[in-house]
Amino acid sequence: MNTDTTPGTDRSFLFVLGSSRPDGNTEILARAAAEQLPADIPQRWVDLARLPLPDFQDGRHETDAWPTGENEEILRLATLEATDIVLVSPLYWYTLSAHTKRYLDYWSGWLSVPGSDFKERMAGRTLWGVTVMAHDDEVVADGLVTTLHHTAAYLRMRFGGLLFGNGSRPGQVRDDEQALIRAKTYFQRETPLARFPYEEEAGER
Predict the structure, then answer these.
(1) Number of other residues whose CB lies within 10 A of the CB of residue 55
(2) Does 20 have pLDDT greater than 80?
(3) Contact assessment for residue 84 and residue 126, using Cβ atoms and an 8 Å cutoff
(4) What pTM does this model have?
(5) Which residues are 13's β-sheet partners?
(6) List of residues 6+ apart from 21 with CB closer than 8 A
(7) Quick one: which of 33, 41, 138, 155 has the fewest CB in 10 Å?
(8) Residue 188: which of 41, 90, 7, 5 has the closest Cα?
């Protein structure tokens, strides 16, 4: 795990790598975007393949507490310490990778950790996504967009949208000139408060 702890800013970015392949296309695109962040904004990168989590077991309605593992605690604290969380996941079967989905499943458990106030502390922070896929049309990733947007909406987070790239073979995303151009300004995007569709409809009435 590589950590940059440069002080001097109120923002801090957590990049959560969810690929099963080291130095994959999605990580390459995410790092291209991260290079554009000001030097005084801390970046922390965690690789879920190197911090493996067991399958999540929902114990919210059980009397016995689920034991917290070392990797889980590292990820929980890293999540709570960041103002901006970037999920870096290739598109697997039109949604998140297994590593990334398992990490989000653990958010469900953290909601009920006594004294953590996880939902309250996540409110107002920003959720971002970076993905690379073999298809050229971004519409095939609508399921991934919905998952991240609704996750942000449930926690009253802001949503920065997704940075898309195209590639399949190792390093192929470097040939996607448009994705690399978008990466230069990705973290400068507006990040509105995420709202469920029914909330938006109610607000229009």
Answers:
(1) 7
(2) yes
(3) yes
(4) 0.90
(5) 43, 84
(6) 90, 170
(7) 138
(8) 41
